[in-house]
Design goal:
Chain B: GO terms for molecular function: ABC-type maltose transporter activity; ATP binding; ATP hydrolysis activity. The complex is a heterodimer of chains A (277) and B (371). Chain A is an all-alpha fold. In chain A, helix 2 packs across helix 11 and helix 8 packs antiparallel against helix 11. Chain A starts with a helix and ends in a 7-residue tail after the last helix. Helices cover 23% and strands 33% of the residues of chain B. With 371 residues, chain B is α+β, with helices and mostly antiparallel strands. Chain B has two domains: 223 residues, Rossmann fold; 130 residues, Beta Barrel (OB fold (Dihydrolipoamide Acetyltransferase, E2P)), CATH 2.40.50.140. Chain B starts with a strand and ends in a 22-residue tail after the last strand. Chains A and B meet through helix 7 and helix 8 of A and strand 6, helix 2 and helix 4 of B. Bound molecules: adenosine-5'-diphosphate and magnesium ion. Magnesium ion (MG) binds next to helix 1 of chain B.
Chain lengths: 277, 371
């Protein structure tokens, strides 16, 4: 009786899991299948990939697309690095130092991140022009920080708040300066939080479209999402579906790589051990 | 090694006063235990000595030198935390040697000192493990090793044994006592457990709500408590208390309480009226009802093998604990009984909790009876 029930529940769980997997993974699979088909085959809804990599070869030979990959990497890595540096510093202050306006500060930081991009777009455009950064990848880094710094600060503040005070005090007694506490105690133990916030910032910067479209003008300064959006066919009447799919699959690969690399850090960090047993 | 002196040290967190003008002198090489109920400010006081918390007022001196403004790392103190606070990402060896590493000592000097300390604490076979791979007792040893390796002037312990199970706690207690005998460094040890305080301390400082209630050797606190708080806190099981009233009878003044208690006072009685009396469980004797000074009902007996405790109900809200020489016959349980005690075992307290030394009980417990 209970045994059957348990089996049914187990079956339902597996079914639900499969459903979620199919729902989330199918679009990627479909993109991959489509990217390996040629011409008219595209319009037949066969589920098996044709394994024809012509479009991928075309992409690799396309200097504009490869350039945009480099731009994206530069923008995403810089954004991630800067938001972590700014986030850690801000979080240390917000999490450790007691000052009366702390709550208000945290609320303001949160507020910044709730404005829709469109709202700040024209203002930022003026700012970027004024700073002479228009049509430069650096403009994107600057504007992405607007979205990434608030949530990195929030997540890291939570971490630092929960960080056992006694560990820091032990380090103080052991003669550590603030800098040494940060580099030898806090940062190594923050690995998991840094990795997870870093991944989020990276994904956001890698995928961003609106700012990237607005603040860059010429092909050699584009990032990947914009470059894909602007891929044109050989004639006005051909929609380059296969090429776009191949490009989409290609840009997803770095994300997957980043997540896999950092995920190992996350797991390693989480098991690195509690303070007491 | 160094002496420690606190001069009218107080501490407020915002408007919340936690330590009230504490004066304390700790001699070089002494083992002093701060004891008191949870939340009374023991840890805060210890942190003030360490320099982890700055006092709101007053002076902290170590070795005769005013260190109130000196940062923790320059005070020559080592601190063993309740949670041990071992660095989770470092091996045992690095945990122990981290302070020396920070000082910038040469690697082989550090290794040598770490190894010596680890041998002494019997953790030298665990050098490459991470803290999470250690048992509670081993973590405790590593935490002590980390303190020991710096050869500090003063050791500070904040409830170091409270996360251990009771067997291990006994064992580590012995080791800490031995450690003090070996290194002879000044030690300040915080605990809420009075038995730990009694067994370890040269002198005990009893704290209550941020004030020192009494400072003295374990014997002094046990036999001559200054007030009701200390009398009730030191000793296990705790002292039995009963509210009493004083009045004038035909043959002189006397005090009366529940269970038909009547104690005659002689003429030398202090004018402060006795509001409460206290008797330790070990000074009570279970007798027949007619022979006892207090009438009660023996409600329950706890047989711990080597010890036997009886719970005697005297009135609706008074139950006294009594230490019995042997387990009483089962048919006495639930029956009326009497409690007898020598008058010298009675502690008398005034309404404000102070102990009245000359309450006038014939042959009352006092300083004189200290063996
Ligand atoms: N950093 C702090 N901020 C505010 N209140 C504190 C702080 N540290 C301790 N307290 C308060 O001071 C009192 C004494 O704390 P503590 O010294 O830790 O007590 P104990 O160690 O005797 O249990 C408690 O009421 C506690 O809430
Ligand atoms: Mg405490």
């Amino acid at each position: 009786m209970y045994r059957t029930k348990r089996r049914i529940v187990r079956g339902l769980q597996i079914f639900a899991l499969l459903l979620v997997l199919v729902y989330t993974l199918f679009p990627y699979y479909w993109a991959f299948v489509s990217s390996t088909k040629q011409g008219a085959a595209l319009y037949r809804s066969a589920l098996l990939p044709a394994l024809d990599f012509t479009y991928y070869r075309q992409l690799i030979d396309n200097p504009i697309f490869m350039g945009s990959l480099v731009n994206s990497a530069y923008v995403a890595v810089s954004t991630t690095f800067l938001s972590l540096v700014i986030g850690v510093s801000a979080a240390y202050a917000l999490g450790r130092i007691d000052f009366p306006q702390r709550r208000a500060m945290l609320m303001i930081v949160l507020m910044i991140s709730i404005f829709p991009q469109v709202v700040v777009l024209s203002g930022l455009f003026e700012l970027i022009n004024w700073m002479g950064l228009f049509n430069r990848p650096s403009a994107l880094i600057l504007t992405y920080l607007l979205s990434t710094v608030p949530f990195t600060t929030w997540i890291l503040t939570t971490f630092i708040r929960e960080f056992p005070r006694e560990l820091e005090e032990a380090a103080i007694i052991d003669g550590c300066s603030h800098f040494r506490i940060l580099t030898r105690i806090l940062l190594p133990l923050m690995g998991p939080s840094l990795a997870s916030t870093g991944i989020l910032a990276f994904i956001l910067a890698w995928n961003e479209f609106l700012f990237a479209l607005t603040f860059t003008l010429t092909d050699e300064n584009r990032t990947v999402p914009v470059a894909i959006g602007l891929i044109a066919g050989t004639s006005r009447f051909e929609y380059p579906f296969g090429q776009i799919m191949a490009a989409s699959v290609t840009v997803t690969l770095p994300l997957i790589a980043v997540v896999l690399v950092f995920q190992r850090r996350i797991v390693a960090g989480l098991t690195a051990g509690a303070v007491k047993g | 090694m160094a002496s420690v002196s606190l001069q009218s040290v107080s501490k407020n967190f915002g408007t919340h006063a936690v330590i009230h003008a504490v004066d304390l002198q700790i001699e070089d090489g002494e083992f002093v235990v701060f004891v008191g109920p949870s939340g009374c400010g023991k840890s805060t006081l210890l942190r003030i000595v360490a320099g982890l918390v700055a006092p709101s007022n007053g002076v902290v001196a170590i070795g005769g030198e005013d260190v109130t403004e000196v940062p923790a790392s320059r005070r020559g103190v080592a601190f063993v935390f309740q949670s041990y606070a071992l660095y989770p990402h470092m091996s045992v060896a690095r945990n122990i040697g981290f302070a020396l590493e920070t000082l910038g000592l040469a690697k082989d000097v550090v290794n040598q000192k770490v190894l010596a300390v680890a041998r002494m604490l019997k953790v030298d076979h665990l050098m490459d493990r991470r803290p999470r791979e250690l048992s509670g007792g081993q973590r405790q040893r590593v935490a002590i090793g980390r303190a020991l390796v710096r050869q500090p002037e003063i050791f500070l312990f904040d409830e170091p044994l409270s996360n251990l199970d009771s067997d291990l706690r006994m064992e580590m207690r012995l080791e800490i006592a031995r450690l003090h005998k070996d290194v002879k460094t000044t030690m300040i040890y915080v605990t809420h457990d009075q038995s730990e305080a009694m067994t370890l301390a040269d002198r005990i400082v009893v704290l209550n709500q941020g004030r020192i209630e009494q400072v003295g050797t374990p014997r002094e606190l046990y036999h001559a408590p200054d007030n009701r708080f200390v009398a009730g806190f030191i000793g296990s099981p705790r002292m039995n208390f009963m509210s009493v009233s004083s009045h004038m009878a035909a043959d002189g003044p006397q005090i009366a309480g529940a269970g038909h208690l009547i104690l005659a006072l002689d003429a030398s009685a202090d004018e402060t009226p006795v509001a409460e009396i206290g008797i330790r469980p070990e000074n009570l004797r279970l007798v027949d009802q007619e022979e006892g000074r207090i009438r009660c009902i023996l409600e329950r007996v706890e047989d711990l093998g080597h010890e036997h405790f009886g719970y005697c109900r005297i009135s609706d809200d008074t139950v006294w604990v009594i230490r019995l020489p042997q387990a009483p016959l089962p048919d006495r349980i639930g029956k009326p009984a009497g409690l007898d005690f020598p008058a010298s075992a009675v502690f008398a307290f005034a309404a404000d909790g102070r102990r009245i030394l000359s309450a006038g009980l014939k042959d009352q417990a006092g300083e004189a009876s200290l063996p």
